[in-house]
Write a structure and sequence with these properties.
Length: 430
């Protein structure tokens, strides 16, 4: 129980940490990428407004294409910067006065049919004219007006006689973004591993007091059950001696309460053993159909005496690998629960059928009145939906908890549900 609780704590902690890191790293990288795109789009918009060139007062005219492998900004001195230019590049969208000197771009003019008319590669040295034209053809075929082609951000501007496609080189910015993204993810992975190691080490100390308290609780239940056996046996023997002079309501009541208390202590010990994992289970192949029919069939005489209808719908053959003794106990507890809490002269249906690679076992019974929907709270220990009814039937509130433990021991799942408010079904997938 404590191991399972600690495991769940570690899982929840790590999932929460991972979720927070994913959100933080995701937001940072998205913002970084959008900044790259926004700056590129701002440059493209400015170039589109000035016929695929920066404002003329920057350069005093469009420069010639530099020699291959020679950076354009290194050719000749920079012309003086005008006040109007400073106003244009005032830092908006990440642009600065150095942007025109740092930006590599080219443009291709195409007619309405997609034929290349002119190619201007005067501001990019790493691209030949034919290659630039090929880029433009690919963009034309895609039908898009804005996006990325390789490491170039492009913008298609409609003209009267066709369109002009402007490409801006973002290789340096994209490389920087990728490096930052990889670094942030790597650091996050290392951080998660570090947190995992710390949580595993520290959780053992955190749960130590809880484990100690839980061990004392289990020891108390086991010791108390053993201590109760002797006085219960003495009480039962004394009642039998008193009954030699004749039975009466008092002696019968004592017998009934002794049996009820004995059953309660046995169930508490069984549940405690299941919680601590010390419950011995012998798994083997057996006929699940026979186990269900034989165990549930034992309640037929009780159903007849109470004028209740007990029905069976059991598929055969159904072979199952599990602990037959515990499975029979599960069936007995569920049918007994249905017999106790079904409506007067009601109906109980026991069903077993194959569902894919699993078996679906269910016990359905009519009830006087119950809320529609899920009722898994019935599996909680000592839960009493109707305390007065439990007192009359002798219910302890532990039986269904034992059923759930048996199902979970067999890696199954059980639920309680009411579809119409007049019936209750317990369904186990094994």
């Amino acid at each position: 129980m404590i191991k399972k609780l600690r495991k769940n704590f570690i899982i929840v902690t790590m999932c929460s940490t991972l979720a927070v890191l994913v959100i933080i790293i995701g937001i940072l990288n998205i913002v970084s990428y959008r900044n790259v795109v926004r700056k590129a789009d701002a440059i493209l918009s400015m170039l589109a407004e000035n016929d695929a060139a920066f404002p003329e007062d920057v350069f005093g005219g469009r420069p010639e294409k530099p020699e291959k492998k020679e950076r354009p900004e290194m050719v000749g001195p920079k012309p003086p910067m005008s006040v109007e230019f400073r106003d244009v590049f005032g830092g908006a969208d990440g642009l600065s006065a150095e942007t025109p000197y740092e930006t590599r771009f080219f443009s291709v003019q195409m007619d309405e049919s997609g034929e290349v008319l002119t190619v201007d590669t005067g501001r990019v040295a790493a691209l030949e004219t034919e290659e630039a034209a090929q880029y433009a053809r690919k963009v034309w075929e895609s039908g898009k007006t804005k996006g990325f082609y390789n490491h170039y951000r492009y913008l298609a501007v409609m003209k009267e006689n066709g369109r002009t496609i402007i490409f801006v080189d973002r290789n340096r910015e994209l490389s920087s973004f990728k490096t930052t993204a990889v670094t942030s993810v790597s650091v996050s992975v290392l951080g998660v591993l570090a947190v995992f190691i710390l949580v595993v080490i520290l959780s053992k100390r955190v749960f130590a007091p809880i484990a100690d308290s839980y061990e004392k609780q289990k020891r108390f239940i086991t010791d108390a059950s053993h201590e109760l056996k002797t006085p219960l046996a003495i009480i039962s023997a004394n009642v039998e001696i008193l009954e030699l002079d004749g039975e009466n309501n008092y002696t019968q009541s004592i017998h009934h309460q002794v049996e009820r208390l004995t059953s309660l202590t046995e169930q508490m010990v069984a549940l405690s053993r299941m919680d601590e994992g010390s419950q011995t289970a012998e798994f083997a192949d057996f006929s699940l159909s026979d186990a269900v029919e034989e165990t549930a069939g034992l309640f037929s005489p009780i159903a007849q005496s109470q004028e209740k209808k007990l029905e069976f719908q059991v598929e055969s053959p159904c072979r199952y690998h599990g602990d037959e003794r515990l499975i029979r106990q599960m069936v007995s507890l569920l049918v007994d629960n249905a017999m106790k809490y079904s409506s007067e002269k009601g109906t109980i249906k026991v069903t077993l059928k194959r569902k894919g690679r699993k078996y679906q076992f269910s016990v359905w019974n009519t009830v006087d009145e119950i809320e529609k929907g899920n009722h898994d709270i019935l599996f909680e220990r000592f839960y009493r939906r109707d305390a007065s009814r439990n007192s009359q039937t002798g219910g302890s509130g532990i039986g269904l908890s034992i059923v759930k433990s048996i199902v979970e021991l067999h890696k199954g799942k059980i639920t309680a549900n009411s579809e119409d408010g007049k019936s209750l079904a317990f369904t186990a997938l094994l």
